[in-house]
Amino acid sequence: MKANIKHRGKTRIVVIGGGLGGLRLMKALKGCGMQVVLVDRNNYHQFPPLIYQVASAGLEPSSISFPFRKMLQGREEVFFRMGEVKSIDANEKVLQTSFGKLYYDYLVIAAGATTNFFGNERMARNVLPMKTVLDGMNLRNTILSNLERAEVETDEETLRALLTVAVVGGGPSGVEIAGALAEMKRTIVPRDYPDMDTAKMRIVLVNSDARLLKSMDEASSRRAERDLTEMGVEVMPGARVADCRDGVLYMEDGSTLATRTVIWVAGIRANRFMSTPEMTLGAGGRIVTDTCLRVKGLNDVFAIGDVSIVDGDKDYPHGHPQLAQVAMQQADCVAKTIKRRKSSEQRGGNVSDQVFRYRDLGTMATIGRKKAVAEIARLKFGGITAWLLWLVVHLRSLLGVRNKIVVLINWMWNYFNYRSSLRLIFRNEDKTV
Ligand SMILES: Cc1cc2nc3c(=O)[nH]c(=O)nc-3n(C[C@H](O)[C@H](O)[C@H](O)COP(=O)(O)OP(=O)(O)OC[C@H]3O[C@@H](n4cnc5c(N)ncnc54)[C@H](O)[C@@H]3O)c2cc1C
User: Fold this and answer.
1) Is the residue at 409 inside a domain?
2) 79, 118, 272, 361 — which has fewest CB within 10 A?
3) Of 176, 183, 225, 375, which is the active-site residue?
């Protein structure tokens, strides 16, 4: 079966994945005179930096998701197809997808990454990832359901397990969700569950490294640990998780933690595809590209963002960080190359592809109300300034005026009266609490 898209004699660029990289590429290719086909397994774009707020009932999923078809309206040269790309035949220049074959002239892989359970199947079954909006909704349901269960639980041991949330992974996502849950414990839980002894609720942040936020400066790590501890989070540095089964988290040192909610933000791995010829994969299963973001060994195929790793950049010998800015800047770079190739084809000249140079705009992590850490060039700061900056940057990055307004109102509402009102448990009829 062939995907039902008319070719119209134009050069066709297929983009796999409409995440932060893929979507930026769609924008950068506007007016390029070529046909652009976006394929994504979802019909919406999602904004990962705010998924933890969906998980902690601070934002609605629809505030950080945006339908592709709405975004691409009015662009005649652009087509969207919802589906899963399964394999790439670079010799025939064709993709095998869940909706049939799709031919391309240029291919850009921007399929991102998924949660890494490091091959531990049982762990994957028993813990909760926080990688997609759907994961965020699932987490919100679990956390709220466990609070409801705790309200009627008479066995003390089970009650404590229901009220213990373990966050595994001390990177920005782990810090952010632990901080948000500590705020929930302090402000929302006592009001919603006046009968509950909230002192029994524990948020434990388990981190295999000696310090949190290890990609940031040591001062930022110390500040994050201090702030979280003050907020009531129990930080466990240097603790490696060995297993999770029957409501117990087992550490490598033999200690255990009884908990019904384990949030797993301990690592990611690139999304995988079969390909002919085979692609070279680097650390974390990332597709290896050269410095022009061309997939090694494949013609006219590029890879950007979390799914790939650049080989040969002296400044980043171990690859670039898997961050939004990298994916977006790489999208701009590939768009330049494809446009250049097209115009040189028309003029009949030779052209060199654009080399990718990453411009580091800084890193940030929010910890809680008026608490964050930021590192911009040589500046390293925290507290309310970093927190306000974090709010502005994330609000600006959100797609759609409606989403910006809804999120801003939500944040202001929560800031002034600590009353987020999104604590609804939506689940399938057949699932019992
Ligand atoms: C919880 C969380 C918080 C984060 N916070 C920050 C932050 O504060 N700052 C920051 O800079 N970065 C942050 N990141 C990282 C940032 O989101 C990523 O670096 C960025 O999204 C990478 O963009 P991408 O385009 O490579 O992939 P993604 O944005 O992940 O997009 C990949 C897309 O590909 C689609 N896809 C995947 N496989 C297939 C397939 N087989 N077929 C079809 N479609 C497919 C997916 O549906 C998705 O739409 C965070 C990530 C997470 C998970």
Assistant:
1) no
2) 118
3) 176
